[in-house]
Amino acid sequence: MLWVGAAAMLSGCGAELDNAQEAALVENAIANAEAVAENVTREARRDRLAERAPVRDAWVGKWIGVEGMVLEIAKGDAPGRYRVTNTWSVDAGDSGTFDGRASEDGIVFRRGESRVELVAGDGDATGLKWLAGKKDCLIATPGEGYCRD
User: Fold this and answer.
1) Are the C-beta atoms of residues 1 and 29 closer than 8 Å to each other?
2) Of 9, 24, 26, 130, which has fewest CB within 10 angstroms of its CB?
3) What span, in angstroms and rounded, lies between the C-alpha atoms of 42 and 44?
4) What is the pLDDT of residue 20?
5) In angstroms, how far is the first alpha carbon of the chain from the final one?
6) Stretch (H or E) spanning 118
7) CA-CA distance, 108 to 120, in Å (whole number)?
């Protein structure tokens, strides 16, 4: 339908479209429609996963890492949505607040260009000797973990 509108506008201006131009308009309209459908499908899938995922509300609260690293999880504005406040290294600027959502295995959020998925584990699974032996932990990346006990 987009290409019909574009063709009508061009023909109203006195411009004639040849077959190649009409084909390009049709291809462009199809590509746009496919992109919109893909984005809608991806968002709907994320919403379904968040609704079906095990409730992560038990993870709400403060988690402590090593050398000043901290993770705080708060409930978001909908089921399966969370606000993640995180300091993930000793470097200045390596902290922020992010929108998270429940996933199949934990809570996922974007930290800059990286996708981070918090998963449950123990201190030994964090790979950090300072957290070894702890039982209630969340692992963000190899060598980055936060524990409660």
Assistant:
1) yes
2) 9
3) 6
4) 83
5) 60
6) strand 114-121
7) 12
Residue 18's CB is within 10 A of a number of other CB atoms, namely: 8
Give the helix/strand (H/E) hosting 24.
helix 19-52
Task: Report which DSSP code applies to 95.
Answer: E
Pull the structure tokens for residue 138: 């969340």
β-partners of residue 71 are 63, 86
Joined together, the tokens standing for residue 11 give 């023909």
8 Å CB contact between 116 and 109: yes
Say which residue the tokens 């957290």 belong to: 131
Integer Cα distance of 9 and 7 in angstroms: 5
CB 6 within 8 A of CB 25: yes
Task: Give pLDDT tens digits for 72-125.
Answer: 999 998 889 999 999 998 888 899 999 999 988 999 999 999 999 999 999 999
Do the beta carbons of residue 102 and residue 49 sit within 8 Å? yes
CA 23 to chain centre: 36
| pTM for this prediction | 0.67
Place of tokens 């990346």: 141
Is 137 exposed, middle or buried, given 0-12, 13-18 or 19+ CB atoms closer than 10 A?
Answer: buried
